[in-house]
Write a structure and sequence with these properties.
The chain has helices at about 5, 65-70, 75-90, 165-170, 185-190, 190-195, 200-210, 220-245, 285-290; strands spanning about 10-15, 20-25, 35, 45, 55-60, 95, 100-105, 110-120, 125, 130, 135, 140, 145, 150-155, 175-180, 215-220, 245-250, 260, 280. By secondary structure, it is an alpha+beta fold. α3 (about 75-90) packs across α7 (about 200-210). The chain is elongated.
Amino acid sequence: MNESGRLTRVPFGQREADGQLIDVHDAARGAHCGCRCPSCAMPLIARQGDEKVWHFAHHTQGDEAIAEQACTYSFFVSVRLMARQLLAAGQTLALPAAVGQVSFEVPELGIRRERSYPITAGALVVLNDVEIDACYQGVTVDLSGRVRDAELLVVFSHPERAVADAVQALSGDRLGVLALDLRPLAADFATARARQLSYRDLLSRFLAQETASRYWLFHPREARMRTRAMAELEAEIAAERWARARPVDCHCLFCGTRWREPAGVAHTCRRCQTHLGIRVSAVSASSTGGAPPPLVLR
């Protein structure tokens, strides 16, 4: 089966009786499942055979091309809606750790330094006060919820649904914005039969355990931690700049010439035209006043 056909296999159908999404493993077999496709609203058939992977299929009277044309990504639509339903019902959500990086460069000195800084550690949370299709700053997201005294916005993405630019621009003092990519679940669900797990079980594990496919679009600690890391890096560069600029006394053991120059330069005797036999000693702080004095040219 081609990729389009595989993605029209629906793991979760919308029950006509109450609008809730249910796993195909929990549905009545065949056309009596009483479910519709959550993507296109077409009636579904619960296919629960002994050989193929269980799934809902569009009730198209055998013409699968109709479903593929009308509802190419019904797999991801159903998974996304079921994930929202689970999180609203108290499903544990794994939050990923996040690390940032800053860099500082002084081209004239040939200095470039980088520093990583922690933004947040990973955590397991249960969202409170969940709102589906929440609107924040005029932008609609999949859901919002409270985590202690902060608000968390969650958005899901898949091949037909990229994260909108407006969502990526959201920010706030006590706000986190998390994106979850659902694409890994297509391959994961294909192993359900071999692992004797329902699709709901696999989705629950994905939400509670897997963090590689999710990332922070915005975290309230990022700016503060970045500022701190940049200040530390600038202090490190300033110390190195001073170390290179501080004066040292040089003495050529071959010809006896003495001179003073910055520590960061190559020490070469101009008379002997060599760096060999150069003895270098630090200049005492008392003689420099604790800061680099004007250089004495040789």
